[in-house]
């Protein structure tokens, strides 16, 4: 059974999972735009609403900026990372005419995504209770730091803050007592990104439910909630085992050996997942007796005697180069890998073969390089050939097409700086 799609949408690429659905993306920075980009990749028509003149804050979050063949720096790498495949319209929602335009557009879309502070859109009459009567089928997704309810609802939330409050930094970094020991954030805004993923999942779930009910609903997503959810086994280690997890550097709390090791000329990752793999590792390192030692012959014993096991493995690893060890581990079915730089990652043969490095034609650059979407489907295609839009690039087109605004109306709105 198919979800009911917007009858006024004429999809440009029908062989996509979300062809025929339309999204109004009123978000900025990362979590909300990441949601919109995923939906655009899946084939939805995503209309990004931005402030006139300035647009999404991240357009100026640089350098680096796009190497602009036309001479001016206007598109930051940060903005380009989260806005592929969208249309950009500029509307000043602080003006009554701008609010009226958003209300009209809300009646023409399936989904609205916003990440204003709690109550931020209510004063403009653009919150869910205000828009729901105009479009009962609307799926309205709100993304905030702490959710629409709870003691922190009115607080602003930022990824770095959430990584700290949500427990992630308490398990990231070198162990206490070792050089450089302190809580460390993840190298990307992980709670923003994962909240964007959860939002895209929730939106598609709401669209599927709409098939049965005929109604939209309000989705309330909080970065702090997401941060708690993605603690996964670390959370259950505490909730079930009643032990507070601690920082282990690159080691794993439940598996040994599963960490980085120094070699004769660098570092590699060893990720042993079972006792057979451990025995193979010991054999290729020339210490087969370790695999039968009662302190190391099973994973629970290796976790219990972590320091002993690592003390036996580390010197043996340092007798070999990274290349030699990686080759030997591959042949022995021991999970391993190099520690690549981002440059090496995007030159990796697998990344290139699987389309994870895109080259797009942007209005300001003929070879815009972006990471691809990892989703691969057997029957449907994704849309990844449309670059992130220029500020307001599609304002007149969208208002003319969806709201039947004529040239005179559009000019009046422009003269009043509504658009």
Automatic annotation (TrEMBL):
Gene3D superfamilies documented for this protein = Crotonobetainyl-coa:carnitine coa-transferase, domain 1 (3.40.50.10540), formyl-coa transferase, domain 3 (3.30.1540.10)
Supply one GO molecular-function term: CoA-transferase activity
Entry keyword set: Transferase
Protein name as annotated: CoA transferase
Q: Which Pfam family, just one, is annotated for this protein?
A: CoA_transf_3
* Keyword Lipid biosynthesis (UniProt): no
| Residues in the signal sequence | none
* Highest taxon, organism lineage: Bacteria
């Amino acid at each position: 059974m198919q979800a009911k799609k917007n009858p006024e949408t004429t999809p440009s690429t029908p062989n996509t999972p979300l062809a025929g659905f339309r999204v109004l993306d009123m978000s900025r920075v990362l979590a909300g735009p990441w949601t919109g980009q995923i939906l655009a990749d899946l084939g939805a028509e995503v209309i990004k609403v931005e402030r006139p003149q300035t647009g999404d804050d991240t357009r100026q979050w640089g350098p680096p900026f796009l190497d602009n063949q036309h001479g001016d720096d206007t598109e930051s790498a940060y903005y380009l990372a989260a806005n592929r495949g969208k249309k950009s319209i500029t509307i000043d929602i602080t003006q009554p005419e701008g609010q009226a335009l958003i209300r009209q557009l809300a009646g023409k879309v399936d989904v609205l995504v916003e990440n204003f502070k709690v109550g931020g859109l209510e004063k403009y009459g653009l919150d869910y209770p205000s828009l729901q009567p105009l479009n009962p089928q609307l799926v309205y997704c709100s993304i905030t730091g702490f959710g629409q309810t709870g003691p922190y609802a009115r607080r602003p939330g930022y990824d770095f803050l959430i990584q700290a409050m949500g427990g992630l930094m308490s398990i990231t970094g070198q162990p206490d007592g070792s050089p450089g020991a302190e809580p460390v954030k993840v190298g990307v805004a992980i709670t923003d990104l994962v909240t964007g993923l959860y939002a895209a999942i929730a939106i598609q779930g709401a669209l599927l439910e709409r098939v049965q009910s005929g109604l939209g609903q309000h989705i309330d997503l909080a970065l702090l909630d997401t941060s708690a959810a993605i603690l996964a086994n670390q959370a259950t280690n505490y909730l079930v085992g009643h032990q507070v997890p601690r920082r282990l550097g690159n080691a794993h709390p439940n598996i040994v050996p599963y960490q980085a090791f120094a070699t004769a000329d660098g570092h590699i990752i060893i990720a042993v997942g079972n006792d057979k793999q451990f025995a193979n590792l010991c054999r290729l390192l020339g210490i087969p007796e370790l695999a039968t030692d009662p302190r190391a012959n099973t994973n629970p014993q290796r976790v219990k005697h972590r320091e002993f096991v690592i003390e036996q493995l580390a010197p043996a690893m340092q007798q070999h180069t990274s290349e030699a060890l990686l080759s030997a581990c591959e042949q022995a079915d021991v999970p391993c890998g190099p520690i690549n730089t981002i440059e090496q990652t995007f030159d990796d043969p697998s990344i290139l073969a699987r389309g994870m490095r895109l080259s797009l034609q942007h209005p300001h650059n003929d070879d815009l390089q972006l990471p691809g979407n990892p989703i691969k489907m057997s029957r449907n295609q994704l849309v990844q050939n449309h670059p992130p839009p220029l500020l307001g690039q599609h304002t007149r087109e969208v208002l003319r097409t969806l709201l039947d605004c004529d040239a005179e109306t559009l000019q009046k709105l422009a003269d009043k700086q509504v658009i």
